[in-house]
Amino acid sequence: MAGRPVMELTDAAAARVKTLVEKAGGDALGLRVGVKNGGCAGMSYTVEMAQDHKPGEILVEDKGAKVLIDPKAVLFLIGAQMDFETSKLSAAFTFKNPNETASCGCGESVAIAPVSEEALSQFSV
Q1: What is the rounded CA–CA span in Å between residue 45 and residue 109?
Q2: 7: which strand partners?
Q3: Does residue 86 belong to any structural domain of this protein?
Q4: CA 1 to CA 22: how far, in whole Å?
Q5: Does any domain span residue 120?
Q6: Which spans in 40-125 are helix H?
């Protein structure tokens, strides 16, 4: 199905993904992104190194970087933008997600509503 990619990466996120994959050596395919239950707002994003492409995952290739999206997270991440932000005290992947309905004060968790079937048709899933 043609359409927009499930998720997009900023230049900073793509550069950081490529750096992490290169540092991991030949074992890494890309980064795996998902969501898990937890935190005061209900869910949090997960990011980990991916050594393989698991069944049902969606591969997003953007700006030369590869990100695999956990199949359980696809409906929550559709239309999101992954960024990498640095400050004096931290450096982390962040997400601008149109499906977020709330976030906690600490910034560690979010409430996310799954995308509708109508909106889903606009993306390459």
Answers
A1: 8
A2: 80
A3: yes
A4: 31
A5: no
A6: 74-77, 117-120
**Residue 30 clears pLDDT 90, i.e. is over it:** yes
Cβ atoms of 81 and 7 closer than 8 Å:
yes
φ/ψ of residue 7, rounded to 5? -140, 150
CA-nearest of 103, 61, 97 to 77 is 97
Output the pTM of the full model: 0.82
How is residue 82 annotated by DSSP? E
CB of 74 within 8 A of CB of 60? no
Say yes or no to pLDDT of 33 above 60.
yes
Question: What CATH number is given to the structural domain containing 23?
Answer: 2.60.300.12
61: confidence class by pLDDT, cuts 50, 70, 90: very high
| Predicted pLDDT of residue 1 | 43
Structure-token pair, residue 115: 């995308």
Burial 105-114 (b: 16+ CB within 10 A, else e): eeeebbebee
Mean local confidence (pLDDT), 49-73: 94
**123 in a structural domain:** no
For residue 124, tell me if it sits in a domain. no
